[in-house]
Amino acid sequence: MPTPKKKNRRLPLPGFFFWRPKSCCASLRQWHSGHPAELARNGVLKFTALAPAAGCAGYVAELRDAKVIGDVRLVATAADVVLGDLQFLHSAENPTQHWVLEQVRFRLPQSLAGPALLLAASSGDNYYHWLFDSLPRLHLWELAGGSLNEIKHFLLKRDALPFQSQTLDILGIPAARRHYCAKRGILKLDHLFVPSMPGPAMTPPPWICQFLRKKFLPAAAAAPARKIFISRRFTQGRKIINEAEILPQLARHGYETVFPENLPFRAQVELFASAKKIIALHGAGLANLVFAAPAASVLELCSPVHANALYKIISENCGLHHDQLQLAAAKASEKDRRLANLVVDPEIFRRKLEQFD
Q1: Fold adopted by 217-356
Q2: Which residues pair with 180 in a beta bridge?
Q3: How far apart are CA 238 and CA 240, in angstroms?
Q4: Which of 2, 125, 291, 328 is most open to solvent, judged by the fewest CB atoms within 10 Å of its CB?
Q5: Strand partners, 173
């Protein structure tokens, strides 16, 4: 008996589920300043230029029939023109030539009616980027004359992490108005408000620190007195593999070892606000320096393969005393060099601790 032929299934048109941008605008500022006609042509109803502080620039754009691609990865107009100074393309040297624009991925379209505000940065699942790249967009929105009450949907990354939910609770954004974008989706929005990214990547201006302190620090706090050592012992990478060798030294100097990732957001704020001395390995948990009391002292333990001045900048913005000690990379290599484990020299650390304390 002959084998019956399989019926050919008719597949959807490639362009329907496999989205690809038609072009990329390097920045909405480009359209606003040099080609204002492009704003109307691409459904930009309004562009509000802002100056959140002296020497700082931002904006809020109001878009009609816009698209958010994937897990808040990209923002595009109705004509599939990607806006290059936002989300994954933020701070790209040449966003119009970025590799992400060549990706073709399966994505399911979904429509969302009513005013929406793009809140989460594309890296908003990271504690630092949530605090410094995502939440300050609310300040830009308010500077532009907007109110949280007029927004029906606050657009977030797909997973609701505890610290995100806790900060939004404090800010008074109801859970019913939080929309979590899908990694394999295209979100079509009839009315989208897009605040610019708050500042240059990894270089937060002072106004962001002031905003976070105003929103989250308690109105009254006791004088800082605690000495804390922030451990990364239970994180996935960038650990001090011989941490046990320095813990007795820290204890003799009155330091308590803490694990911020185990604390709710408000407790992390209170922990750093109560500390006069902070020792920590470079990592997102040090974003909490923004909540430390002025004149507190910080000793940042640095990696030789993943270094930047981020926490020195935050310390300067908040009036903290910042110092650092570079550790050695462990012999075992990591696929992601930023997460390479480290080794501390106990004798060098002892001398540095005596000097710091």
Answers
A1: Rossmann fold (3.40.50)
A2: 156
A3: 7
A4: 2
A5: none
Q: Where in the chain are all domains bearing CATH 3.40.50?
A: 217-356
H runs (alpha helix) in 4-123: 14-17, 28-33, 37-41
Phi then psi for residue 301, to 5 deg, are -90, 120
CA–CA dist 216, 270 (Å, integer): 10
The closest alpha carbon to 29, from 50, 53, 14, belongs to 50
DSSP state of 20: -
DSSP assignment of 120-179, as one string? --TTTTSHHHIIIIITHHHHHHHHTT--GGG-SEEEE-SS--HHHHHHHHHHT--GGGEE
Q: Determine contact, residues 170/266, Cβ cutoff 8 Å.
A: yes
Question: How many Å apart are CA 254 and CA 277, to the nearest integer?
Answer: 10
Beta bridge partners of 76: 67, 82
d(CA 280, CA 287): 11
How far is the CA of 99 from the CAs of 68, 185, 309, in angstroms? 18, 19, 27
Cα(335)–Cα(305) distance, integer angstroms: 12
- Distance, CA of 296 to CA of 160 (rounded, Å): 32
Q: What is the pTM of this model?
A: 0.91
Between the CA of residue 194 and those of 44, 144, 153, 188, 353, what are the distances in Å?
Answer: 10, 11, 12, 14, 46
Q: Could you tell me what percentage of the chain is helix, strand and coil, using 3-state DSSP and rounding each to the nearest 5?
A: 35, 25, 40
